Amino acid sequence: MAAPAPRPPGLCCCRKGSAAGPEAPSAPPPPPEPPPDVASASSSQLFSLRHLHLGLELRPEARALAGCLVLELCALRPQPRALVLDVHPALRVLSAAFRRAAAGEAPCAFAFSPAEAAASPPPCSACPLGFRVDPFTDYGSSLTVSLPAALQPHQPFQIIVRYTTADGPAIWWLDPELTYGNAKPFVFTQGHSVCNRSFFPCFDTPAVKCTYSATVKAPEGIQVLMSATQSSYVEEEGVYQFYMEYPVPAYLVALVAGDLIHADIGPRSRVWAEPCLLPTAISKLSGIVERWLTAAESLYGPYIWGRYDIVFLPPSFPIVAMENPCLTFIISSILESDEFLIIDVIHEVAHSWFGNAVTNATWEEMWLSEGLATYAQRRLLSGVGAAFTCLETAFRLDALHRQMKLLGEDNPVSKLQVKLEPGVNPSNLMNLFTYEKGYCFVYYLSQLCGDPRHFDSFLRAYIEKYKFTSVVAQDLLDSFLNFFPELKEQCVESKAGLEFERWLNATGPPLAEPDLSQGSSLTRPVETLFKLWTTEPLDSVAAASSVDLTKWRTFQTVLFLDRLLDGSPLPHEVIKKLSECYSSQLDSMNAEIRIRWLQIVVRNDYYPDLYKVRRFLENQMSRMYTIPLYEDLCTGTLKSFALEIFYQTQNQLHPNLRKTIQQILSQGLNPLPAIDTTAVTTDTPAMVLEDKVSEATNGAISLRDVNVSA
What we know:
This protein folds into four domains: about 1-15 and about 40-255, tricorn interacting facor f3 domain (Immunoglobulin-like, Sandwich), CATH 2.60.40; about 260-350, Zincin-like (2-Layer Sandwich), CATH 3.30.2010; about 360-505, Orthogonal Bundle (Neutral Protease, domain 2), CATH 1.10.390; about 520-705, Peptidase M1, leukotriene A4 hydrolase/aminopeptidase C-terminal domain (Serine Threonine Protein Phosphatase 5, Tetratricopeptide repeat). Helices cover about 35% and strands about 20% of the residues. The chain is built from 20 helices and 22 strands. It has an eight-stranded mixed beta sheet, with no helix packed on it. A hairpin with a 4-residue loop joins strand 1 and strand 2. Helix 17 runs antiparallel to helix 18 (about 640-650). The two termini are about 20 Å apart. Belongs to the peptidase M1 family.
């Protein structure tokens, strides 16, 4: 969140609308139409969205949010009959109204009381409109709002929608006992990829961007933060004001509220956390964010978002991190691992350029954000040392090949340009190919330039050209060839076996991978130790004495444990000796390491350490730490053990995660009974492939093999 600033003019306004004369304003050249997004029911291609304003009241005792949405729009075609927005069954629409925007009027220039957002009538100048809600997919619905017949192109107007929403894919309410401090309720949102339609009615597609503002009322003692460039607090009204001055897609509108305090950790950064976590967060991040922001600016141009703040969320946050502009969300459990924390911070910093400033226009090309952000992350990380960068890359590419083996080389989800079928949740297509195959393609492009600094210059120009817009792969590749005309003359896009088209549309592993030999000083000891433990006959004394794991880097340890996982089930003598040598050491290490050891325990049915699996799942509520263990428990002989743990911990789990685990547990069984009347009853984003995608796969993708930083 940005530092407190004076309230913008009016309630929430930002930009002045174009002045209009007595006659209809002349039409500006129409913007290029975005590619169709089959994951959105909206009529976004018929309208230009200038701004959205949210008036919100948080009601923790009811686990609900009352909202008033104001959209500033212009029609792109004469007399559109209706406006269609994306919504969700968890969101209840109460009313819709139409209001003509006055010439030159700032967006959302009328006032309303957030305390009455759900019940107060529209402004007197607004006309009530008819509306209906229809089914769309398992992950959303469509809201159709009838429009006045006389609506002309390029004349601004407002649509006002009043609604309430409860627990849904985007919003998770936590009772005080599910927070670290156990003192106050907590709520956070997670919009990626198509969840924010349960937060507010919207054009829920990355192709559409707009500025936004928000007025939020919360109970006394609850700190509210949003992904906004400006913020202020009106104490006498108990109201927070937020404003995002740059256009962003709907999925990057984010809110968090709870018992949060902050400390400055740099000239433009602060960290937010619950009071008991703040000292640890400060010690881990002080000076770190500014270092990487400055490094990224030196490569890719100015950081345009003003503030770069970080908020640490409770363990039930469903992913590792989310790059919301100005306010990155990170799961608090990552504080245990310095290496994974730094990698995630650098990755989310990179998203400020790749993903936030320039966004993939459809979810079929998520690699345009994730592949470029991963490349930028490693380009920045190379300043720490080539060996460590190669170690981290080797770890991720190992996971990519493991995923490839699971899915088969002909699986369509291994393409960079994935064909998203209607009805399939885009979140189901989030996998390592998005990150690592995308990274390999970007790395290959950088190698064509000869010097990575030349590629840095290209990426800087690419950002400058396309910032605040959404792009497709052809935009990137055309810009690349135009920036390097000598490469265009050489027809590098058609080089046999490495054609750009093949990179994008061929299934299977990357067509080329980086040379990681500079990491051999760190990866060679891993290979040596693995061979000692898996070569027959086992010399456990030699294996145990060869390496002190406490002296290794985290990525070395997880790479070693991943090798053992790949070789499981292991002979009983080996798993017994491994436990004797390492189990107590691993208990004191971070969750990234512990989960891998516990997966080895489960895959080898090693009952002496099984109690540690229960203890881990009772304390870890993130998708990345729960689903891999539940998948392994249900694949083997321990499904009843998994059911027992699930029923004891279900109320601590995010509704999306709870439903995913239910699906895992119900495979081969009668459907599980309903577990909570407040649980979401519609499909929500899951990191396992299901629905139509699952027909092409032989199994779910373990989250152990997926980078779940968005």
